[in-house]
Write a structure and sequence with these properties.
The complex is a heterodimer of chains A (812) and B (108). Chain A is α/β, with parallel strands linked by helices and 812 residues long. Chain A is 32% helix and 21% strand. In chain A, the strands form eleven sheets. A five-stranded parallel sheet of chain A has the order 5-2-1-9-21. In chain A, strands 11-18-12-13-14 form a five-stranded parallel sheet, covered by helices on one side. Chain A has a five-stranded antiparallel sheet with strand order 23-24-27-26-25, sandwiched between helices. In chain A, α12 (428-437) crosses α14 (460-471) and α21 runs parallel beside α22 (726-743). Chain A is globular, with a radius of gyration of 31 Å. Chain A starts with a strand and ends in a 7-residue tail after the last helix. Chain B has a single domain (4-107), classed as Rieske [2Fe-2S] iron-sulphur domain (Rieske Iron-sulfur Protein, 3-layer Sandwich). In chain B, the strands form two sheets. Chain B has a six-stranded antiparallel sheet. A three-stranded antiparallel sheet of chain B has the order 5-6-7, with no helix packed on it. The longest helix of chain B is centred in the C-terminal third of the chain and has 6 residues, at 102-107. The mean pLDDT of chain B is 92. The chains are: A alpha/beta (812), B mainly beta (108). The interface between A and B is medium-sized, with 29 and 35 residues.
Chain lengths: 812, 108
């Protein structure tokens, strides 16, 4: 017989947990859900746009009642639970319905705090929490004209703005002298107040509510100083309190919320709790992003997978008032050791403040232009060392150089038909419509449903902004520690560490030990694990061809029509008549339709038929050429200028240096492609400052630059070091490559890797630790002993990988 | 419909695929970890990518061109993508891989 799961609470946290559970194990439980409200499950954070009339109730339903039936879930809507009988493991609702449980999930959410002033229970006094409240406010707005909102926090201001749009005159009473004082500093608060006043909101602040006056309906609000403000509707929005009454009555340990551990379990191991009603490590949360994290963890345990942990959430806030952009995250109050960087343009109504402590972002505020809020938040969550970014912080992530976005970095200002994703041709309207219609909360959701940001990723920032501005504070930011893929909860770093610690030597071993949720993984995790094993056990690990992308099996680049392109290696970009003749012969012999120069100083033969690949390589091999690895997550090319051999400005032999580097590093597998360049003087004709590792000759030696990128988002390199000898160039290059090989996540280029770990870390490992640098270099050379084989040299037709992909001869 | 022998099971690598060109077009034969074999027209419903060159996982393959994931049994794209690749019946009889389907016969 199936176990019984009872869920108390039909809100976002409870039902998200059920959805996650069904995804993991749909057949484990008979599920019964009790909800206070007589509806299916709706998106509570979208109540503000419903109040303002910008959205309808139908727009914000997540699961209609039919969804419960489809999944065999018994729903008791409009049936508040009144007691939990733990000894007998049953719950009983107000209407007498009762249900037995094997496991119980409490997701009772929170209630608005009602200030117990005289008159608080008069008709016309409402909170702002559920559909009934919104209906009451909308009805009042239709009949009456004057509203008072008590509370100048996020919720109060959204209520005030909504009522204003419904044509009421609105006064906001706030106890403090700053609006949203928990999210804003006095400067941003004053800017916000001014722009709300321009929309004809009136403020009484600081002001204390003494009483609500009226006989059969509210008539006015009396303030502490004796003033009276006429009101036909009073909205109390002074805060929320976790609903813990039921849990307390059942004898569960509660603080401000129901106390849970990192697996979302209460003090009764059969009883779990998630959402606004819980207290985890002393914290309670009133936003949706943490609740989604909690739901995932809780579902993992309910599904008896049993290893996920919730470590708490960082949260950010965005005000959902159309036309006013406010972003706030973290602690911006300062404190010991904190530094503030502030930008203010009063005329344009723009204000930004980033608080830095110990070279990390501790808090951030943005008013007017919040386009960089997501960036600040990411820096904060990742604990990025921002010492190198200080000058840029105020001017944002969109420092220019992004390809395909028409120079746009602010999504809010774009018209609806603006193309956001240049790869897949997705417009802003399409994205916002999908977010609303399909209740998308995460970047991955948007990628799956619209394809936006799913190819090159350069528009990710814009898509995140659209998510943030469409769902507001409900936007579930991409978690800082992302699972490697959907097959696991573990991150890239977890997998790398575990492979070494547990001495795991094969992909099935890794998946078994780390309890992969799918049998043999997916197209994301298998290549990653294959690389991590290869990097961890050079010479020992047997490469798994079936876990490599086709390009790395065929040693050529698959093209849109299923043909391949072949790029022979030309050391340092140098070639000669014999090689050129061989290439020309091959192109003619195999009817290769296109021959093109690449950006990395090589020749690309395009349109090679798959079955011709071994013969093409055999002929190129015969002329002394080897694979150029233009297809791999590997060392690609070393681009050079002619340097001191020919150039009248050249100060070093950059060509020879480039050839040396390429001979040393070629055929090395790396987390993502890796490009190098060597320029013979600071004129930098080889464009070394947009490469992963760039060398620029100067009269006294060589400058070494790292982390550049000329693609999606142009990033110029950071200067790593200046050295004098060729041997040092090679040692630093090899050590840097190895550090990148050992630390970066699969498919992470050096630019984002360095931004993640900080240049300081790289300098410390390479420059400041000479012994460590040599050890890295030695490990690199060791791995090269096994990697440096030309994949085609051993007689291409006979390689096992080719045998496995060669077309079958047609049967007679 | 007649079953048509194509190759030995051992000709197809586990978690891999082989192709054969028949009158009906290029056919991809996939072999799962547990030695089940599936036959599909080697064209992704999205942009006709060669599915046989993709990474096979479970009973699915990820197209090498744009990462669309196709269920081998039905040819259906995994939601939220949509589309369906042409499938053929496939079986393994004492180590022989055989296929059949209306499209195969029509093309002959």
């Amino acid at each position: 017989m199936k176990q019984k799961l009872v869920v108390i609470g039909n809100g976002m946290a409870g039902i998200k947990t059920v959805e996650e559970l069904l995804e993991r194990n749909p057949d484990l439980y008979d599920i019964t859900v009790f909800g206070d409200e007589p509806h299916g499950n709706y998106n509570r954070i979208m109540l503000s746009p419903v109040l303002s009339g910008e959205k309808s109730m139908a727009d914000i339903m997540i699961n209609e009642q039919s969804w419960y039936a489809e999944h065999g879930i018994t729903l008791h809507a409009g049936s508040p639970v009144t007691s939990i009988d733990r000894p007998h493991r049953t719950v009983t609702a107000e209407d007498g319905t009762s249900a037995a449980y094997d496991r119980l999930l409490i997701a009772t959410g929170s209630s608005p705090f009602i200030i117990p002033v005289p008159g608080h229970d008069l008709p016309g006094v409402v909170a702002f929490r559920n559909i009934a409240d919104v209906d009451a406010m909308a009805a009042a707005a239709a009949e009456y004209s004057r509203a008072v909102v008590i509370g100048g926090g996020l919720l109060g201001l959204e209520a005030a703005a909504g009522l204003l749009r419904r044509g009421m005159t609105v006064t906001v009473i706030h106890l403090m002298d700053c609006l949203m004082e928990r999210q804003l500093d006095p400067v941003a608060s004053a800017l916000l107040k001014r722009s709300l006043e321009e929309r004809s909101l009136t403020f009484e602040m600081p002001a204390e509510t003494k009483a609500i006056l009226g006989s059969d309906r509210v008539r006015a609000v009396a303030l502490g100083d004796g003033a009276e403000i006429a009101a036909d509707l009073v909205v109390m929005a002074v805060g929320i309190r976790p609903n813990i009454g039921l849990a307390e009555d059942a004898g569960l340990h509660c603080g401000r919320g129901i106390v849970v551990n990192d697996t979302m379990q209460s003090y009764d191991p059969r009883i779990y709790a998630v959402g606004e009603c819980v207290q985890h490590r002393g914290q309670t949360y009133g936003l949706v992003a943490p609740l989604f994290d909690q739901a995932k963890v809780c579902a993992n345990h309910l599904a008896e997978i049993g290893y996920a942990r919730y470590g708490g959430s960082l949260t950010s806030t965005k005000l959902k008032v159309t036309g006013i952009d406010v972003f706030s995250a973290g602690d911006f109050s300062g404190g010991e050791g904190a530094e503030e960087i502030i930008f203010q343009d009063a005329a344009q109504g723009i204000y930004r403040k980033v608080v830095i402590n110990d070279n990390q972002v501790q808090g951030a505020l943005a008013y007017g232009d919040t386009s960089d809020g997501a960036w600040y938040f990411q820096l904060m969550r990742d604990g990025t060392d921002v010492s190198a970014l200080r000058e840029k912080l105020m001017f944002g992530h969109g420092g220019g150089g992004e390809a395909g976005l028409g120079g746009e970095t602010g999504a809010a200002a774009l018209p609806g038909d603006a193309e956001i994703c240049g790869c897949n041709g997705v417009c802003k309207d399409t994205i916002t419509a999908a977010i609303t219609a399909k209740n998308l909360f995460t970047l991955d959701d948007v990628r799956a449903h619209t394809k936006a940001s799913s190819s090159c990723g350069s528009c990710t920032g814009l898509v995140e902004q659209l998510l943030a501005s469409t769902v507001g504070s409900g936007y579930a930011e991409t978690p800082s520690v992302r699972p490697l893929c959907k097959c696991t909860q573990f991150s890239h770093d977890d997998v790398r560490r575990t492979i070494i610690e547990q001495n795991l030597k094969t992909i099935p071993d890794v998946m078994r030990f780390m309890e992969w949720e799918t049998g043999d993984g997916c197209a994301k995790c298998r290549p990653a694990i294959n690389y991590y094993l290869l990097c961890a056990w050079p010479g020992d690990y047997v490469d798994d061809a079936q876990s490599r992308f086709i390009n790395e099996r065929a040693h050529a680049n698959i093209q849109k029509d299923g043909t391949y392109s072949v790029v022979p290696r030309m050391w340092g970009g140098m070639t000669n008549p014999k090689e050129l003749r061989a290439i020309a012969d091959v192109a003619e012999r195999f009817d290769i339709p296109a021959v093109k120069m690449t950006g990395g100083q090589r020749i690309d033969l395009l349109g090679v038929k798959k079955e011709d690949l071994p013969a093409v390589w055999r002929d190129l091999n015969a002329a002394g050429m080897v694979s150029g690895h233009a297809y791999g997550k590997a060392l690609r090319t070393v681009k050079t200028c002619v340097g001191s051999e020919w150039c009248r400005f050249g100060v070093q032999d950059s060509t020879a240096m480039g050839i040396d580097l390429e001979k040393m590093a070629c055929a090395s597998w790396t987390p993502h492609k890796f490009k190098m360049a060597v320029s013979g003087c600071p004129r930098n004709c080889a464009e070394a400052t947009i490469k992963d590792f760039g060398v620029v000759a100067v009269e006294s030696g060589w400058e070494l630059h790292v982390g550049g990128n000329g693609g999606i988002r142009v990033r110029t390199t950071d200067l790593l070091a200046k050295v004098t000898t060729e041997a040092e160039v090679k040692e630093y290059a090899g050590a840097f490559l190895q550090l990148y090989r050992e630390e970066a996540h699969y498919l992470e280029r050096t630019a984002p890797w360095i931004e993640r770990v900080g240049l300081g870390h790289v300098k410390q490992r390479i420059n400041e630790d000479a012994a460590g640098r040599r050890a890295l270099f030695d490990r690199f050379l060791l791995s090269q002993e096994f990697a440096q084989t030309d994949p085609w040299a051993q007689g291409a037709d006979d390689t096992p990988e080719w045998t496995g992909i060669r077309p079958l001869a047609a049967a007679e | 419909m007649e079953w048509q022998r194509i190759c030995d099971l051992e000709d197809i690598p586990r978690l891999g695929a082989r192709t054969i060109c028949l009158a009906a077009g290029p056919i991809a034969l996939f072999r799962t970890r547990d030695d089940r074999v599936f036959a599909l027209l080697d064209k992704c419903p999205h942009k006709a990518g060669p599915l046989s060159q993709g990474i096979v996982h479970g009973t699915r393959v990820t197209c090498p061109l744009h990462d669309m994931v196709i269920e081998l049994e039905t040819g259906l794209a995994i939601a939220p993508d949509d589309g369906q690749a042409t499938t053929f019946e496939a079986r393994v009889i004492s180590g022989n891989v055989e296929i059949r389907g209306a499209a195969l016969e029509a093309a002959q």
